[in-house]
Amino acid sequence: MSSEASYPHNDSAADIPLVSTMDHVIEQCSRFRVLVVGKACPVTTGAGKSSLINAIFKCHDARVSEIRPGESNIEQEITSQHNPRFVLHDSNGYEPGETKHIDILQTFIEKRSIAADENQRLHAIWLCISIPLAGGRVLERGDEKLFKIKRNNVPIIIVFTKYDELIRKFEFAIQKTRDTMNNAELSKLQEDAKHMYQESCIEPLKAGLKHVPPIVNVSVSPGYEDTLPMLVEVTLEQMRSGVRVSSNKITKIVGRILSRPSHGHDESEQELHYPELMLATAQGVDLESKISASIDVGRKKYWRELWYGTVFNGKTMLVCLDTLHKDIVLVWNFSNAQKRFFREDVMKVAGPAAEFIPHATAIGLSVAAAIFLANFLYGVYKSTHPTVSCLMAYIVDLTIVMRRLFQLSRAAKSSTLNPESVDEVLKEFDASAEKIEVHDAIREFVAQASFLQTQKKDFVFEKVVSLIREHTTESAGGGATGSG
User: For labelling, which of 49, 54, 422, 436 has a CA lying 20 to 30 Å from the CA of 79?
Assistant: First the structure.
């Protein structure tokens, strides 16, 4: 491997784009498809299905029926113009004693669960139940029949919604809110709520069902945002396993999610699972799922070619960076990312990463620096130490920027990126100690790479993953200050 940089070219073939891994994934499975089942009530606001869907997928226009049992059309595809990566079907509640809508539900599940086209196949079922606060039934008769339908490994997750109302019931009893309680009062409230939840929700399910599926409790109210990632994680867990989980494993699953190791799931080579990738892409609440999905996509091809670069040979650096950039950005799924977060921002992120190219740090004038960067980007890829360092830095830098933007958009409850916020995040990262730390680690790694290490195909990939894991946790340094 040479230490010399690449130079400008005159070959038009060098500008032909590489095939993005995410483009291939989207071609195979463009949307996560979920069936939402839940009780509707003519008096109350039902199980809060619309609010839940919009909160999970960071949109505002996905609406399901919450009022009259059976009024929705289960075949209707409910989508959002703000998030093209999911589609939901709504099976509304059931009238006591009626069977028509249950038969429709059964036909839909049995047909969709074995659809040959992954784009048409059903991927998960969320049974939404509003937590019963006055001793009501947990499951309707139609819900009980749902568990007897042949689902062909499509997982069901029971989702108890409006957990905040359970907490408020106890707040009302002592005439205090959580914000005004001392530690002893808060601890007692949490224990009382946990006991009531177990008694009124979990125990009836264990008594009434032979096989109890995974259960989560959620709320979309302010202050309860940390309940939402659990639904994403449990759903992904079930989609990966592809089997029913008995009740004695529920606690283990939830416990494993609550105490996630810093490296997430196994980073060894594995095939891409398109529906799981689409759920991770579509959702806007769980950071760990985004990170893992980005790594899975990178592992499939391009991140594993950074040292020898066979797939990059003959292409300009800009084409190489464009491909890496697109795969990362598409996973993070900001609603306006495809419109603005490509070529213009490749240049912005490539600037810091280009410091690894010889003589780059010696250029002081902005015009000269811009010319140098352009020459580098439009030069043909060569497998050199500086080039490998640049590509590694680009992947890690951009992923850190995505993490910062994700946290910003999650707080703003919107997947739409404010252009000013993007610029702010890029500037903050470029001036950060975190960037210096990442680049120093890459520089040291490449300089010390031994012959034996280079014989291992994934040694560069594993370093990239290690740096991403270290710098993209919820508590990782840095963050955006702009508005979403």
Answer: 422
Q: How many CA atoms lie within 13 A of 221 on its CB side?
A: 10
Query: Other CB atoms closer than 10 Å to residue 447's CB: what's the count?
Result: 9
For residue 34, the cross-strand partners are: 88, 124
User: Taking the mean position of all CA atoms in its chain, how far away is CA 368?
Assistant: 40
Q: Rounded to 5 degrees, what are φ and ψ at 109?
A: -65, -45
Quote the crossing angle between the two packed helices 343-353 and 317-332, to the nearest 10°.
110
What does DSSP assign to residue 337? H
Residue 342, pLDDT > 60, answer no
- Could you count the other beta carbons within 10 Å of the beta carbon of residue 448? 8
State the Cα–Cα distance between residues 292 and 310, nearest whole angstrom: 25
* End-to-end CA gap in the chain: 44
Distances, alpha carbon 440 to alpha carbons 42, 353, 433, 454, in Å: 62, 11, 10, 20
pTM of the model: 0.84
Contact 349, 398 (CB under 8 A): yes
Cα–Cα distance for residue pair 185/180, rounded to 1 Å = 9
Residue 387 banded pLDDT, cuts 50, 70, 90: confident
SS3 label, residue 197: helix
What three-state secondary structure class fits 75?
coil
Contact 482, 408 (CB under 8 A): yes
Residue of 257, 178, 278 whose CA lies nearest to 215: 257
State the amino acid at position 156 in one-letter form: I
Instruction: Between 279 and 243, name the one with better pLDDT.
Output: 279
Number of Cβ within a 10 Å radius of residue 479: 13
Of the candidate ranges 230-234, 337-341, 452-456, the one whose mean pLDDT is the lowest:
337-341
Q: CA-CA distances (angstroms) from residue 130 to 66, 101, 207, 240?
A: 12, 20, 19, 27
Q: What DSSP string runs through 277-290? A: HHHHHH-SS-HHHH
* SS3 assignment, position 379: strand
Burial class (CB in 10 A: 0-12, 13-18, 19+), 215: buried
State the average pLDDT over residues 411-436.
84
CB 53 within 8 A of CB 36: yes
* Closest residue by Cα to residue 407 from 419, 423, 421: 421
Q: Could you give the 3-state DSSP secondary structure of residue 128? A: strand
User: What 3-state class would DSSP assign to 8?
Assistant: strand
Q: Is 47 helix (H, G, I), strand (E, B) or coil?
A: coil
d(CA 2, CA 239): 45
Q: What is the pLDDT of residues 294-330, one digit of tens each?
A: 999 999 999 999 988 889 999 988 889 889 999 999 9
Q: Are 22 and 331 in contact (CB under 8 A)?
A: yes
